[in-house]
Amino acid sequence: MALNGYRKWEEFVTSSPRLLTVVFLILTVSIVATVPMMYVGTIDTTKAKKKNREGLNLEISPTTFAVEKRSSFFIKASRDFDSACYRLSGRIEELGYRQEFTRGELLHGVRSEINPRETGPFQFHFVCDDEKEIGSVAIAVIPPGATAEAAKLNWVLDAGKPIHKTASFEIPIFVRAVVVKGNQQIPRAVPNDTTFTVVDSHGNLQSPVNITLQRNNAISGPVYIPFPIHRDYALIASNLNTGKQSNVLDLKWDDRGPKLRLAVWPEELEIYAAPASIRSAQVYLEGDGQQLKPAGPMDIYLKAPLKVISNPSDKVAITPQAPSGKYEVRGGSQAGSVSTGFKEPSLDLSSILTIQIRPIKWLLLAAALAGFIGVACGRGMSLFSERGLALIIGLATAAVAGWLLYWALLMQWIPPVLSESAVGVGPAIFFGILGGYLGLSVFKILAAVISGGKLLPK
Fold it and tell me: In the chain, pLDDT over 90 holds for what percent of residues?
């Protein structure tokens, strides 16, 4: 029935040459009339883009330095990283060391110097412009000439801080060579390259990982392994030559992983109180300011307000393949401020989306006033040859027709279904002019479309 009405609507529009002639004038007047109003009563439909804060994956050579001796080193980012970081500060707080690096230097590799004042293992932290740490690499400081036979060494498997990568996290692991004296672990350089294989007793590491501790170093370079949400490891490194094993390294997400948050973006939506007004938001997991992939399929339940139409109405699903779920909201009939609540029960995470519903009265007023332009376009100077009540009735009919046509479209009572871009002051003026031009025919069109009847008498 609605389809039949829509075809009649098309037939009416295309059968009137005069209407087609005046369409260009309507468009021109509509655009001109919109310019002073385009910043009044409009909704910002743009969405700020979240930055991709990719972590810093580092390589340093050598990894081991002699205490109280100035030594040079070469450091390089092994892949691109956070595009918002232009300058980075490399810091080893325990040694009082700080060095500034540019983004270009780290991407291409840069040589610098260090003169460490004490022995031990240390983390070389890298902090972005906004004081956010985005990566680190481990180094060791040993006494001059401190090497030891492999048989006297113990192997310590250790890990750094997780870094963000795409929609998940990685964590660097490395092997340290030490000699044990009492309760102390004193770093010692190995005389030869020594290779280890790392396995996970939990079976969460898909395949063994090899780590090589190079000669004359007391600590290996980092090897990055995946660190998905709530995945724990129990890692152990074995010397491939001797079979001697390291300690068991327990990597628990609860201890080392970033704090999780259920994020909604944007955090606030604005819609009009009409079914034709539609906005959407993305729902996803976030950790350390980064969007994450869930370990498996996950349902995020929602509680929607009554003043809007929600899609979906009960829950949003996210998966590792689609880590962001879409929540769509359509305006109801009442203006006001409401909110939709989201909850993920297994992680006990929740979030709230605020929805501002703006009234359509100003849009309808614009359409009604634009109806005067429409009737002037349709009847020309003959309109003003009328006097008294006839002129008032003509103008009132045009205003009501403009108001009614746009209102019916906003309510989606008649086709075509408006896109989101057709909800605003400019479209209101356009359809108001069209309604004013059609006059009483608007009522016939509405009746025909709703009832499926004929638009024009035979």
Answer: 36
| Domain locations along the chain | 2-43+360-451, 58-256, 275-358
As a CATH number, domain 275-358 is 2.60.40.10
200 bridge partner residues? 235
Rounded CA separation 249/276 (Å): 57
Q: Is 378 exposed, middle or buried (0-12, 13-18, 19+ CB in 10 A)?
A: buried
What pLDDT score does 53 carry? 59
Judged against a pLDDT cut of 50, whether residue 21 lies above it is answered with no
Residue where the block lists tokens 């370990």: 295
CA distances for 194 relative to 156, 210, 234, angstroms: 13, 10, 22
| pLDDT given for residue 351 in this prediction | 93
- Distance in angstroms (rounded) separating the CA atoms of residues 412 and 279: 16
Cβ burial of 345 (10 Å; 0-12, 13-18, 19+) is: exposed
What gap in Å lies between CA 359 and CA 160, rounded to an integer? Answer: 53
